[in-house]
Amino acid sequence: GAGVSQSPRYKVAKRGQDVALRCDPISGHVSLFWYQQALGQGPEFLTYFQNEAQLDKSGLPSDRFFAERPEGSVSTLKIQRTQQEDSAVYLCASSSGTGYGYTFGSGTRLTVV
Amino acid sequence: GENVEQHPSTLSVQEGDSAVIKCTYSDSASNYFPWYKQELGKGPQLIIDIRSNVGEKKDQRIAVTLNKTAKHFSLHITETQPEDSAVYFCAVGPSGTALIFGKGTTLSVSS
């Protein structure tokens, strides 16, 4: 596609529920990043993939967060047993290189109630 | 780790005026400095970037300046227009993986 596509755009989850957020990067982009953006803050790094390899997951806040990119294209960010502090916009970005000039999707706004 | 400070947090200008947003960083090994514009309900959009071997870069009404010695860089927008109103983020790239973002500047341009 022409841009990075994320779905769903909005997700409301009850506390304790598991959620899965999807990212379709720009075709051919080898690098894929997940960021978390709290209200009124800048994006914060969660994890990075180069093709199917997860090279950096240092930003994942707890072991409830898990990301995968099994075929080096679509990626899924899964959050288990959601908590209220997980409420945020989750942004996906992709780039053709290793971190320069990446393109963001519009994000998924997660609200945990 | 890298620490990025961005100022001001809000900026109001009249249409046609210039706007300047500044960022400082801590890691002297950082070598990539992009600026993003984020409109309501959208993801950040790259508007200009600079690498550490360049001191200034300009693209029409937008320019970025970099002072590696002082570890700061700035975004300059000239002849501002109402459609420039948005949240602007600076970011710093330590050697090509994750970007570290500032907290953002909300720019309001009134006509």
Largest sheet of chain A: 7 strands, mixed
The average pLDDT of chain B is 94
Q: Which value, in Å, is the CA radius of gyration of chain A?
A: 13 Å
| Helix-and-strand structural type of chain A | mainly beta
Number of helical segments with 4 or more residues of chain A:
0
Approximate shape of chain B: globular
Number of helices of chain B: 0
The value of Rg of chain B in angstroms is 13 Å
Largest interface comes to:
A-B, 25 and 23 residues
Unreliable parts of chain A:
none
Strand content of chain B: over 45%
Main beta sheet of chain B:
6 strands, mixed
Describe the protein's architecture and organization.
The complex is a heterodimer of chains A (113) and B (111). With 113 residues, chain A is mainly beta. In chain A, strand 7 (65-68) and strand 8 form a beta hairpin. Chain A is globular. Helices cover 0% and strands 49% of the residues of chain A. With 111 residues, chain B is mainly β. Helices cover 0% and strands 55% of the residues of chain B. Chain B has strands at residues 4-7, 10-14, 19-25, 32-38, 45-51, 56-59, 62-67, 72-77, 86-92, 100-101, 105-110. In chain B, the strands form two sheets. In chain B, strands 2, 4, 5, 9, 10 and 11 form a six-stranded mixed beta sheet that branches. Chain B has a five-stranded antiparallel beta sheet with strand order 1-3-8-7-6, with no helix packed on it. In chain B, strand 6 and strand 7 form a beta hairpin. Chain B is globular, with a radius of gyration of 13 Å. Classes of the chains: A mainly beta (113), B mainly beta (111). Chain A binds chain B through residues 4, 33, 40-45, 48, 55-56, 59, 91, 93, 97-107, and chain B through 6, 32, 34, 36, 41-46, 49, 89, 91, 93, 96-104.
